[in-house]
Amino acid sequence: ETGVTQSPTHLIKTRGQQVTLRCSSQSGHNTVSWYQQALGQGPQFIFQYYREEENGRGNFPPRFSGLQFPNYSSELNVNALELDDSALYLCASRTGGVYGYTFGSGTRLTVV
Amino acid sequence: KQEVTQIPAALSVPEGENLVLNCSFTDSAIYNLQWFRQDPGKGLTSLLLIQSSQREQTSGRLNASLDKSSGRSTLYIAASQPGDSATYLCAVRPSGNTPLVFGKGTRLSVIA
Q: Which residues of B touch A56 (CB under 8 A)?
């Protein structure tokens, strides 16, 4: 029943390659956040966009970048993949104010 | 810097038992708090959202409480069922424009 869709669901990449993960949010969800979740850990914040502008960033290197588009979709790009980038990547979005976040089903990225 | 801790890390109970999951946070100045459920390898499903001005929220067999002054929240699950088996994550939103800060979760197993 989630209104946030992520693609692809699974992905295998080679170290050094680049990857783009995609997220489609519900209409009106003008804030989108991306998280990385390693096995057995809680999600770690990567960055957040509000109305197509980045307005927050976690402790991730610049090779993690993103975009948000006017149609409430967004993407996460990771360059020069490393083995430690293997994780579940989660997209979350919300409308303004007091509303909570809605999460997508995630993309499982494996770097070999 | 806000930090969120969840205890216990794992819990196993027989079907039908009532149980409590704990969440603590270091900075009492929060905007709201969300409890999520995560099935293995899947995304996050929002269970309950508590605003900073609220003391508790209920949905079906679930009840979440919030005590900002002591930096604690609990998730109470009544009459547990095997289908409740999952990881439960607590997440705090420090202010209106900030992303969520997660605990590492409690992995719950309900034995039939």
A: 97-99
